[in-house]
Amino acid sequence: MNDQQPWKFNCNKCGSHELTITHVWSIEAGTDSERWREWGPLKDNHHWQYEFKEKIEENADDEVQRGDFGEFEDDDSDSEPEEYEINESETERESDEFFINCGNCDREIEFGWSEPDRRGLILPVEFSDFNSRESWPDPKYVDAWQKRGWIRTGHIQD
């Protein structure tokens, strides 16, 4: 981009013009569940593409320490290995989490969606073209938007 083009985002902490969107979700596999995240840049046109994806590992300090078992005994049982049904993330995305952060200083940026139920484009509050009357808040910001009077009739709430 050339320096003459106005930026839609300018971080008020570090001056960066880049935003990162992160999507966090859970996958259930049998009695266990895994948390995953994917992230990538949010562009000035409100579109994004996830460039990275990883499983969120539990903190190693929280894990149970296991001793050295030496040689393992053969499993001579007649039972078959258990089959696990993997339930992909729900289509409603109710338990999914989305975050927008400054790409430089990692400051969280409040945002809404262009359509109800966390659908459509992402509309950061700090974008120069943000219009609260055309946005549905991400669920974690509903209270803040109500206090500001930004919730309009027709907004879907938790």
Task: Tell me about this structure.
Residues 62-75 and 81-92 have low confidence and may be disordered. The chain is mainly β and 158 residues long. It contains 1 helix and 8 strands. The longest helix has 7 residues, at 142-148.
Supply the key terms.
three-stranded antiparallel β-sheet, mainly beta, five-stranded antiparallel β-sheet, globular, 8 strands, about 160 residues, 1 helix
Number of strands: 8
Content-based structural category? mainly beta
Question: What is the 3D shape?
Answer: globular
* Count of runs of 4 or more consecutive helical residues: 1
CA(first)-CA(last) distance: 39 Å
Helix percentage range: under 10%
Secondary-structure element order, N to C: EEEEEEEEH
Question: What is the element layout, followed by pairings?
Answer:
Layout: E1 19-29, E2 32-42, E3 52-56, E4 86-87, E5 97-102, E6 111-115, E7 119-124, E8 136-137, H1 142-148
Antiparallel strand pairs: 1-2, 1-4, 1-5, 2-3, 6-7, 6-8
In short:
By secondary structure, this protein is mainly beta. The chain contains one helix and eight strands. A hairpin with a 3-residue loop joins β6 and β7.
